Amino acid sequence: MRENCVSVLLVFSVMVLQSAANGATFKGEVEGRYYYTEAPLFSEQSDYRSQYALATTLDYNGEINRNIDINVSAFGRYHPEADNPYQGDVRELTLNYYASQLEVSAGVLMERWGVLEAFSPVDVLNPRDRVEDFQGDIKRGIPGGRLSWLLDEGRIDAWLLPYSREERLAEGKDRFRTSALAFSGAEFEKGKNTVSSAIRISQMLESIEFAVSYYNGHTRSPYFTPNLNGVSNVITLQPNYAQIEQAGLELLWVKGQLLVKLESIYRSTNDENFTGLGIGLEREFPRIGLAKNGLTLYGEYYYDGRDSERSSPLTPFQNDVFFGVRLALNNLSGTVYELRLTRDLDNNSSFWDFRAKTRIKQQWFIEASLYEFSNVDHDPALKSFASDSRLAVNVILGF
In the CATH hierarchy, which top-level class contains the domain 2-398? Predict the structure, then answer.
């Protein structure tokens, strides 16, 4: 919304002035996007087949003194065919202190856990932005603090998060909506000011990296309950964020050019306990014959035992396989092509994802992606996207 965009601009105005004064690094990118889609599934959605948007992502790092620095990452977008045309978010804004074996960060945090390619079951700290990316790869910052103790071949991290944010969900004119109904105000079990906490211990042992984690707090993805009018008609859906406890395990084994990956969770709510699992293989071929091209192949399997009718939100990775191939030409333009397929073994639905990126001139890049949904009419996690197959072309200016 406009208020968020103003906040982003104010933050970066201060950063630009400070960077000029102390020589700090300041970088970012500006994009122009065009979308080509089929007619929408829901009547409220924008029916423009070709849409544009202007977006900027700005990153800043400045050193206050030898032991203290500040990191900021902010995002803003103008998209006239979105339900809220003006969007902005400070995804990270941290003040960081470093000692010999100690690190302390406080502010708006951006954290990433996990080793898998398609989906990371263990990655639980940050809420997602489902409008910018329905797959959940783009996150929203979360207020809190992190204390880290550095080990010889690993680290121990602990988090306190005093405030929970909602996921950003597609609604109204937006594409990639999960429901035809509007959303009412979100409900957080015990209130959104309830403190969440987490601890994660990671270690490297020769060719094996592993991490164990524990999280206690609000889930970052909601389940939905219907709001009824006086005659039992559903008029809106209410997002609900349950309190959860989650134990996680991550494992990465490096054997030459082969990577073996594992993520596993055990989650507990007030009325449901379940396990989740993802296993994967990744094989890199640094050179193909006499060419400089590098090829990477990967495959993953996901299982999730949650009951989608209860308080845990629906996930598309309950019995799915994922395959991908990435071709890097290793040329001066940094050209990369990637093809990804997710296949639901229960519903026989498929999601194809093709991506390509190359430099066209100095700081100018062009990036394309194609999303294609196939046979999703009986897949509860994807059926609302049946008409959202999309080609996006981004022209990016990096600076």
Answer: mainly beta
